[in-house]
Write a structure and sequence with these properties.
It is built from 14 helices and 15 strands. It has helices at 15-29, 44-51, 73-80, 105-117, 135-146, 156-164, 187-197, 227-245, 259-267, 285-292, 303-311, 323-331, 346-358, 360-389; strands at 2-7, 35-41, 56-60, 67-68, 71-72, 84-87, 122-127, 148-153, 172-174, 207-211, 248-253, 275-279, 297-300, 316-319, 338-339.
């Protein structure tokens, strides 16, 4: 039995991270039955309860597990007693580099030389990286790359970061995010959710989905909005969209920590009767993908809210709250459907949403062949890893 460690965020709080985990486990199960996945996680019970049908070994990362999130025994054991380490999602960046409650890269960087010494290959698995804004961050990233045998990336932006920082790496394969293969829940399940949550009232009017996150512009450093100003702008944009298009609005939450700011936005909205909320605190990533399949267009800050739309070809608009948004949108040829933080204002947001709504059928038809290619690319990583694992 081979052991493969998955580095990511798998506590169940982020629907995007869980979609990555679920798809990786399912994809490998299609081709191999000899792998046990070691999964460092803040919530071992979540991994056990939801993915125990796979051969998984969750490893606790709390203080009573002698870990302070990424820093500690769980990371050490999972990276040194394994046959391979897969780094997923956007786990490597140098924001708050020395704070293990926020940052994973420093802890992985500490273990990377041990992996190299023990001939345990590190693999970037359909990952992205960044931001990397400090010399120390670049140094640690190079240390991890020095222990790497395979690099598959989900966007070209990360490759550009490697080039800008003059980092050396193994051959780079530009593939796609594993979450793009997330399937909608069955129709019977979705119909029950729609009834329970009273979604899509007066369905003929259509529905626009909005997603916000708690980071706002902490990653980009380009915006100067306070949290309250941001919430008021989003709320006013929603009201303008409702007034102009006579549509319903769904506030879609894909990370539990965003529920608070979503409710703050909601309190500023005039058209309360047209607003519904769906969150991953209550529903799975498959449920959310199924609901997004029924909206006309989506605008979001969370990257995986955009990826979920791509999974079912729902037109999407990105508010670029961090670099991986732009990287993803460019990877699916949606460069014209991004809003930078300096352009976050009511007229611009509402105008972009209105344009997307009016062009929704054309946009959907354009997305279908693009996302079909991306879905195939996401699965190519499985064979590359399998060959390396032996």
């Amino acid at each position: 039995m081979k052991k493969v460690t998955l580095i990511g965020s798998f506590s169940g709080r982020n629907a995007g991270d869980i979609a990555i985990l679920a798809n990786i486990l399912d994809d490998f199960a299609e081709v191999r039955s000899d792998i046990q996945f070691l999964i460092p996680t803040l919530k071992p019970s979540f991994v056990r309860d939801h993915y125990g049908h796979h051969n998984v070994k969750p490893m606790g990362m709390m203080p009573w597990h002698l870990s302070l999130k990424a820093l500690g025994l769980a990371t050490y054991r999972s990276m040194t007693n394994t046959d391979m380490v897969l780094i997923t999602d956007n786990a490597l960046f140098d924001r708050k580099l020395y704070n293990p409650l926020v940052n994973t890269m420093f802890s992985v960087g500490l273990m990377a030389p041990l992996c190299k010494k023990r001939n345990i290959p590190i693999v970037f698995y359909n990952a992205s990286v960044g931001p990397i804004d400090t010399p120390k961050g670049a140094e640690i990233l190079q240390t991890i790359l020095d222990a790497s045998k395979l690099v598959t990336l989900r966007d070209k932006k990360t490759q550009e970061i490697f080039e800008e920082l003059n980092l050396k790496s193994p051959e780079i394969h530009l593939l796609a995010d594993a979450a793009i293969n997330t399937k909608p829940s069955p129709d019977s399940r979705l119909e029950q959710i729609i009834r329970d949550e009273d979604l899509f009232p007066n369905g003929d009017a259509g529905t626009i989905s909005f997603n916000v996150n708690a980071y706002i512009d902490n990653w980009s450093n380009t915006g100067k909005l306070t949290r309250e100003q941001f919430c008021q702008i989003i709320a006013a944009s929603i009201d303008k969209v409702i007034d102009d298009l006579d549509v319903n609005v769904l506030l879609t939450v894909t990370q539990v920590m965003d529920i608070t700011i979503t409710n703050e936005v909601k309190q500023f909205i005039r058209n309360q009767d047209k607003i519904r909320i769906i969150t991953n605190e209550k529903y799975t990533c498959n449920d959310i993908v199924g609901i997004l399949d029924k909206v006309d267009t989506h605008i979001g800050l969370r990257t995986h809210s955009l990826i979920f739309c791509a999974a079912i070809n729902t037109p999407m608009i990105s508010i670029n709250s961090y670099p991986k948004n732009a990287g993803f949108m460019r990877s699916i040829a949606q460069d014209d459907w991004m809003i930078e933080f300096e352009d976050v204002n009511v007229e611009h947001i509402a105008g972009m949403v209105s344009k997307s709504w009016h062009e929704r059928e054309q946009r959907k038809s354009e997305l279908i062949p693009i996302t079909a290619i991306e879905k195939k690319k996401a699965k190519q990583a499985v064979q590359l890893v399998s060959d390396l694992l032996g």
